[in-house]
Structure formats: structure tokens, C-alpha cells
């Protein structure tokens, strides 16, 4: 049964991959580089844990490494709203398959989101086995500890995925929930900087054996093995109960019960006036297209969540700079606002411009059937994202001012200019990607970019920012604002030319590949959806 | 550009996928002001033909003339004058019915106020005004089809290309749509539709073409196609063949335990 489901999925993937082999090879190469990096990091972990040192040191290092692994394992999917592969239960529930079989597959599919951490865990285990202090005789403890740790994370991740998926479909407060969640992740740093007594904090330090990562660490290091094993098993049991409960809850879940009232629009509101904004400065059909984009994007939960996160995620990134060097902020903190704004744009990229027809799905055929030039469709979609960026910069600016990062009106203007420059390059390449690598996205699911688009982001995004980086380098080297403005002006001009050329290419490619684009955007997934 | 010639002239149209021809040397003439039924079994090439006619996919070879204009060449003008109800959804799920119709109207250069006014009226006629503020993702299949039909009308086209327009629509909705289409034809519009419901085609259409394996196997006026007392279904089955047997699925036709066959 499991084999049949996996085979159906492989067949549907084969059909998709076979469509465009060069881009598949491109994605595979990027995957190789990405996982090569993690393999290298894992090798570093092995070397680190091979060094014979005191048991206390090893325990501290192990607890820290496993804590970071847990955070990455559990938080990375939440922060990127990307949950890897999962069973599409609606396609499978009609068949006479026991729910427990689905649950097993679901947990195994969680492996798709944690290959990096499995590599790291393997490196740590190999390091301990090579360590003269432990050696091969410690193998049973090391293996047991690592397996318990991995299983606990797998179950937790499976449960979390289902909870978040239901949130996305039902909760009106998901944006707020994500904010609270982010606040929780930065809470330890804030606590450390506040006046809470150190003794009280130490009682809950991550190295205390009652935490799951520390228990696994103790077990792997052969220290207090019995209590460590019992605690690790208790955590594993709790994670299993949590994931199973959430999975079976999802089996009985009917999102439509919640959606009906949520999705009815409420007449002319402030938002309606915002939607009508493009009509004030754009002619039809561009204004109509931009208005339609704004309406659609604002009604997709995932876009709203990522938008909110794009406004505040920089806070996490810059927290050390904020709390550490308040008196004399360094270069990084000085330029925090433009960097946070560009990072926010990158976060929005996957949903808005790397694959700009993704949410249109089969309705994309309208753009080919209506009497409108395709060029205007691209421009309207890009203008919409640009309009979304203005409030985003304003919010990031406000937050920066609140936490005393450099946030003068000049910095705001600089962030806007940098954002426009970055947008010109990214929109340009995004328009080409949208017609070369189109991929249907389901607004009701947390589905993410296709592997190819991810590959494209990894390869091109940093490279395309080079002209902007050069402007900052000019300012730093020549200590001159004039040098910065000069290079930035060149970057903007080049960006304009680049955007124009890419737009032209995208329009022509769309005309040539319209059949393939339609097919790709109308395609449905196999029994496993990648999210 | 002529307003008196046929609405559609297709000459030697071919569309090849790999080694398989989905449309294989198709020749077709649809008279202006006719209600033209385009029939064929599944996979015969009906949807491919409609997609080529709307410019959604390019043909491998052959020539197409719509309303006296050549495709490709006068695409924008052709698009302005045709209305399309496709087989797949051309609807944006995250818009409401009203927003979608207004948007489509503006795509056809209708002024915003006019687009909204016509959208409201169409929703009323298609009995969707109660749902006009509901997102399209909440619509049933029949409601979506009715909305697609409304969208194809908003710019008052003179030629309609419709792929299974009544699929999923309830009897009341289908009747309304049929009456409206007949009225449009009476006022000079041309309708080219595909349908699997032969009774509907028989009742509505004055011209019919049957396509099988990418080729036209029968074409003409309805009364000429139905020779003698044959129904359209008889003609269809005779033309495309009905050699599908399920008797060889012995495991399926065996009686269940305790039930005599």
C-alpha cells in the first residue's frame, strides 16, 4: 500500500521532471551544492566531536549543538512557511487504507524537511565514535541517543505541520499567531538582556537534562544514562502523542465549515479604497490587473503571513546588533533598514514574482484570451508587489525606530531606493522565471516554490544584488555619500535596462510557450503534496 | 475584414504532439449566424480545436479565419469580438463573482462603471446575485460554469466558442442558458459549442460536425446529418464506432457470493 502511494507520487514527479530536463538538471545541481554544504558542515561537526576534551565540555557542546538542531528542525519550516512533502489526504481518504498507515507515511515524509539535520546528527555521532574518550564501545549509547532525538523531532515536526496547516485554513488570527511565535523564539535573548536573576534563568538553561536535546546529549555521551534515557523516552512519547492526535484531527477536519463566513467580503472598506488606488495613476487594463492582483494576494493567508513576517523577521536577524552595540552601531546595524527591507522583499519573492502566475493557475489562460498585451500583465503584477513594498518599508522603518536602529527619514529614503533597485533586477529575472518555470500554487495549502524556482533564487538573488552592494562598498571605501549616490544611480539605470530587456524576453517566451505554461499551471499533484 | 462571410473557416488544420496528431487535417466552415455543434468522443480533438481557435495553443500547420480575420495576425481584434467559455476554469478563485465580471469587462475596454453595471445585471440574470460577494472558490461547479458564461457575454461578442458549457449546470440554469443562446443566435450571433449531451445539441444546433481521431467524419446541416428516422445519437455511434465490450471482464461480471447470475 505504502509502495503504491509512493509509486504514484514518483510517477507524477517523473512526468513533471521529464517536461524540462535542463531546468531539472539545474535544480539538481543546486541541490548538490546545498546538501554539499551541509555535508561539509557535518564533517566539521565530526571533527569537533572527535576532539578528546573534558566530559563537561562535550556535554555542553552536545546540548548546544542538539538545541540548535532542534530549533532548525522545528523552526525553519515555520519561518519559511515551507513544510516539505505531506500526504494529500483528500485524494487518499476514499480508499480502504487504515489511518495508521497514513500516519506512518506522514511521519516518514517528515524526513524530507530535515535531511540537513540528519546529516549534522550523523556527523556528531561519527565524531563521538571517533573520540578516544568514547570510541566504538559507546556505539549503543550514541546510536540510541541519536535515534531517540531524531524520532522525537520527526514526530513533533509532523504534528506541528498539521496544526499550522489548519491554522492557515481557519484562523483569522494566524498573522498574530505567527508574530507571537516569533516573539517566543527571540524571548530567550530578551530575557538574557533583562534583569531577571541569572540563577533563575540557569535553572532552565538549555543544558539541563530535562530538555529533550540535553537528555539525548547525555545519553549519547554516556552520562547519567538511565535518567537521560527515561527523559528522552518521555519526550518521544509526548511527541508521538502530539503528532498522532494532530494527524487524526486533520483526518476529520473540514475546512469549509470555517471558511464560509471568513471569506465573504464585507462591502466597501478601507481595503476596498486601497484596491482602487492603481486606478488613480494607471490606465485600464493595467489598473484593473493591478487591482485584481491586490485583491487576490490580500486574500491568500500565506501571502499575509509572509508579508507580516517580512516586516518583522529582520528584528530577529538584527537583535544582537540592537541589544549589543546601542551606543555605537557598526556598519551592519547602520544599514539595517535597507538590508531588512531587501530581505523582506526576498521573503515575498517566492509568492509574488519568481512564479507570478502560480496563484492564477488555469485562469492564466485569460491573459492569452483577452484582448490585452501580455506586457501589461507583467507590469501590473510587478507594480502590485512594488505597492506592497511601500507599507512594508514603512513598518520596518517604524520597528527600527522603536528599537533604536538608525532610522532617520534619510534612511527611509535610502531603503526605498535600494528596494526599487533590487526590485528592478529581481522582477526582471522573476518575469523570465515565471514563464520558463511556471508552477501551480494552491492558496489553500502551504505549498512552496518548486525546486527549480528555489534553485533559481539560490543562484541568482545574491548575484543580482551586486550593483547595490557596490554602492555600499563605494560609500565604505571612499567615506562619501556622493560616491554611494553615484553608484546607486548607475545601479538603478542598469536595473531599468535589465528589467526592460527581461520583460521583453518574458513576453516573447510566454507567447511561444503558452501551451506549456497552461499545462504546467493546470497540472494537479500526486497523492503527496509538496508544501 | 468582411462581415458577410463565414464566422469560422479552418483549412487543413493540424496539431501534432510527438508522433500523435490530435487534430489531423481538419477542414471546417461555420456559417455566420449559425448554432454549430462540434461533437466527438473523448480525446477526439474537440478541446484542442477550440484552444487553437482561441489562440491558446498554436497549430502545427493550417490556416484559421475568424470573422473574416486571420489568426495569427489580427489576434487582438479577434479576441475583442469573441466570447469564450473554456472547458477548464478561467476564473480567479480569490475574487468574488462581481469583482471577476467587472474585471473581465475592463479587460474588454469597458469603462469601469459600465463594467460594474453589466456585471450586476448578468449576475441577476444568471441567478448569482445572492452570491456576488462570495469568493469564486466557494462556488459549486454549476455556479462556476454560469459565471464563466456570464463573463463571455459581458462585452457582447458576435462569436462564441464554448467547450461543454452545460457541464455541471442544473436543469433550471441549463434551460436559461439554452434560451439565452438561442436568442443570441436569432439576433445574429454565431455559436460554436462542444457537448457530450447529444440531446442538447440535437435540440439547439442547426449545424453539426463530428470529429474522430482528429478528423471530421461527418458535417452538415442537422436535418441532412440525421438521415431518415435516425437520432443524432444513432448517427454519432454509427460514425465513431461502438466497439467497447465489457463482457471480457469476467471477474466483474461474476455474481457475488450467494447471488445467482
Helix/strand structural class of chain B:
alpha/beta
Spatial strand sequence of the major β-sheet of chain A: 1-2
Count every helix of chain B, treating DSSP H or I runs of 4 or more residues as helices.
10
Assembly state: heterodimer
Mean pLDDT over all positions of chain A? 78
Poorly predicted regions of chain B are: none
Form type of chain A: globular
What fraction, in percent, of the residue positions of chain A are helical? Answer: over 70%
| H/E element sequence of chain B | EEEHEEHEHHHEHEHEEHHH
Structure description:
The complex is a heterodimer of chains A (531) and B (261). Chain A has helices at residues 2-19, 21-50, 55-80, 89-92, 99-109, 115-130, 139-170, 174-193, 198-203, 212-220, 225-251, 256-263, 270-275, 278-281, 286-298, 301-324, 331-334, 336-352, 365-369, 374-402, 409-436, 451-464, 466-478, 481-512, 514-522, and strands at residues 85-87, 528-530. Chain A is mainly α and 531 residues long. Chain A folds into 2 domains: 31-255, no CATH class; 268-530, no CATH class. Chain B has a single domain (8-241), classed as P-loop containing nucleotide triphosphate hydrolases (Rossmann fold), CATH 3.40.50.300. Chain B is built from 10 helices and 10 strands. In chain B, the strands form 2 sheets. Chain B has a 6-stranded mixed β-sheet, with helices on both faces. Chain B has a 4-stranded antiparallel β-sheet with strand order 2-1-4-5. In chain B, strand 7 (159-163), helix 6 and strand 8 (190-194) form a beta-alpha-beta unit. The N and C termini of chain B lie far apart (66 Å). At the A-B interface, helix 12, helix 15, helix 19 and helix 25 of A face helix 2 and helix 3 of B.
Amino acid at each position: 500500500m505504502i509502495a503504491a502511494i509512493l509509486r504514484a507520487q514518483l510517477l507524477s514527479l517523473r512526468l513533471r521532471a521529464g517536461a524540462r530536463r535542463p531546468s531539472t538538471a539545474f535544480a539538481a545541481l543546486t541541490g548538490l551544492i546545498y546538501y554539499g554544504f551541509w555535508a561539509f558542515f557535518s564533517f566539521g561537526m565530526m571533527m569537533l566531536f572527535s576532539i578528546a576534551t573534558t566530559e563537561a565540555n562535550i556535554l555542553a557542546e552536545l546540548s548546544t549543538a542538539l538545541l540548535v538542531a532542534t530549533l532548525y528542525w522545528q523552526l525553519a519550516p515555520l519561518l519559511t512557511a515551507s513544510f516539505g512533502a505531506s500526504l494529500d489526504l483528500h485524494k487518499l481518504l476514499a480508499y480502504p487504507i487504515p489511518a495508521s498507515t497514513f500516519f506512518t507515511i506522514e511521519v516518514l515524509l517528515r524526513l524530507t524537511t530535515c535531511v540537513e539535520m540528519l546529516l549534522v546528527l550523523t556527523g556528531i555521532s561519527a565524531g563521538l565514535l571517533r573520540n578516544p574518550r568514547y570510541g566504538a564501545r559507546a556505539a549503543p549509547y550514541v546510536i540510541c541517543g541519536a535515534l531517540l532525538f531524531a524520532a522525537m523531532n520527526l514526530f513533533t515536526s509532523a504534528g506541528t505541520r498539521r496544526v499550522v496547516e489548519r491554522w492557515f485554513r481557519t484562523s483569522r488570527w494566524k498573522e498574530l499567531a505567527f508574530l507571537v511565535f516569533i516573539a517566543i523564539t527571540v524571548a530567550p535573548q530578551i530575557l538574557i538582556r533583562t534583569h531577571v536573576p541569572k540563577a533563575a534563568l540557569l535553572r532552565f538553561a538549555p543544558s539541563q537534562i530535562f530538555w529533550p536535546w540535553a537528555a539525548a546529549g547525555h545519553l549519547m555521551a554516556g552520562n547519567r544514562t538511565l535518567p537521560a534515557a527515561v527523559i528522552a523516552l518521555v519526550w518521544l512519547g509526548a511527541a508521538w502523542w502530539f503528532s498522532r492526535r494532530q494527524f487524526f484531527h486533520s483526518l476529520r477536519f473540514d475546512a469549509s465549515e470555517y471558511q464560509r463566513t471568513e471569506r465573504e467580503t464585507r462591502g466597501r472598506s478601507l481595503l476596498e479604497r486601497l484596491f482602487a488606488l492603481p486606478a488613480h495613476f494607471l490606465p485600464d487594463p493595467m489598473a484593473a490587473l493591478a487591482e485584481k492582483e491586490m485583491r487576490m494576494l490580500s486574500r491568500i493567508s500565506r501571502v499575509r503571513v509572509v508579508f507580516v513576517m517580512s516586516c518583522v523577521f529582520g528584528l530577529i536577524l538584527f537583535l544582537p546588533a540592537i541589544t549589543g552595540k546601542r551606543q555605537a552601531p557598526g556598519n551592519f546595524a547602520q544599514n539595517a533598514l535597507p538590508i531588512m527591507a531587501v530581505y523582506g522583499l526576498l521573503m515575498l519573492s517566492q509568492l509574488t514574482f519568481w512564479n507570478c502566475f502560480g496563484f492564477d493557475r488555469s485562469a492564466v489562460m485569460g491573459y492569452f484570451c483577452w484582448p490585452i498585451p501580455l506586457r501589461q500583465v507583467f507590469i501590473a503584477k510587478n507594480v502590485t508587489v512594488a505597492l506592497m513594498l511601500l507599507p512594508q518599508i514603512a513598518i520596518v522603518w517604524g520597528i527600527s525606530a522603536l528599537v533604536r536602529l538608525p532610522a532617520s527619514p534619510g534612511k527611509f529614503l535610502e531603503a526605498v531606493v535600494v528596494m526599487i533597485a533590487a526590485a528592478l533586477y529581481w522582477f526582471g529575472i522573476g518575469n523570465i522565471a515565471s514563464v520558463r518555470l511556471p508552477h501551480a500554487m494552491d492558496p489553500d495549502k502551504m505549498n512552496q516554490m518548486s525546486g527549480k524556482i528555489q534553485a533559481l533564487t539560490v543562484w541568482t538573488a545574491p548575484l543580482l544584488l551586486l550593483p547595490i552592494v557596490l554602492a555600499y562598498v563605494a560609500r565604505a571605501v571612499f567615506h562619501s555619500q556622493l560616491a554611494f549616490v553615484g553608484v546607486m544611480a548607475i545601479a538603478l539605470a542598469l536595473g531599468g535596462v535589465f528589467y526592460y530587456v527581461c520583460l521583453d524576453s518574458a513576453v516573447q517566451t510566454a507567447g511561444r510557450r503558452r501551451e506549456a505554461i497552461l499545462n504546467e499551471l493546470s497540472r494537479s499533484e500526486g497523492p503527496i503534496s509538496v508544501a | 475584414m468582411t462581415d458577410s462571410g463565414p464566422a469560422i473557416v479552418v483549412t487543413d488544420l493540424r496539431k501534432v504532439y510527438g508522433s500523435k496528431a490530435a487534430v489531423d487535417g481538419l477542414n471546417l466552415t461555420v456559417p455566420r449566424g449559425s448554432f454549430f455543434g462540434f461533437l466527438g468522443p473523448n480525446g477526439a480533438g474537440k478541446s484542442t480545436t477550440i484552444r487553437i481557435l482561441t489562440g491558446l495553443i498554436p497549430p502545427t500547420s493550417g490556416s484559421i479565419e475568424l470573422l473574416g480575420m486571420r489568426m495569427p495576425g489580427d489576434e487582438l481584434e479577434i479576441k475583442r469580438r469573441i466570447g469564450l467559455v473554456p472547458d477548464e476554469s478561467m476564473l480567479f478563485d480569490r475574487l468574488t463573482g462581481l469583482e471577476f465580471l467587472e474585471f473581465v469587462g475592463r479587460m474588454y475596454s469597458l469603462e469601469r462603471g459600465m463594467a460594474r453595471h453589466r456585471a450586476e445585471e448578468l449576475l441577476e440574470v444568471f441567478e448569482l446575485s445572492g452570491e456576488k460577494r462570495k469568493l469564486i472558490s466557494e462556488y459549486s461547479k454549476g455556479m462556476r460554469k454560469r459565471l464563466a458564461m456570464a463573463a463571455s457575454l459581458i462585452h457582447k461578442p458576435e462569436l462564441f466558442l464554448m467547450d461543454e458549457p452545460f457541464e455541471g449546470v442544473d436543469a433550471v440554469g441549463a434551460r436559461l442558458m439554452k434560451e439565452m443562446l438561442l436568442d443570441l443566435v436569432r439576433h445574429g450571433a454565431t455559436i460554436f459549442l462542444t457537448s457530450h449531451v447529444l440531446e442538447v445539441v440535437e435540440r439547439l444546433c442547426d449545424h453539426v460536425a463530428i470529429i474522430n481521431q482528429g478528423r471530421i467524419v461527418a458535417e452538415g446541416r442537422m436535418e441532412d446529418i440525421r438521415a431518415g428516422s435516425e437520432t443524432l445519437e444513432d448517427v454519432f455511434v454509427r460514425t465513431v464506432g461502438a466497439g467497447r465490450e465489457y463482457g471480457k471482464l469476467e471477474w466483474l461480471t461474476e455474481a457475488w457470493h450467494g447471488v445467482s447470475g
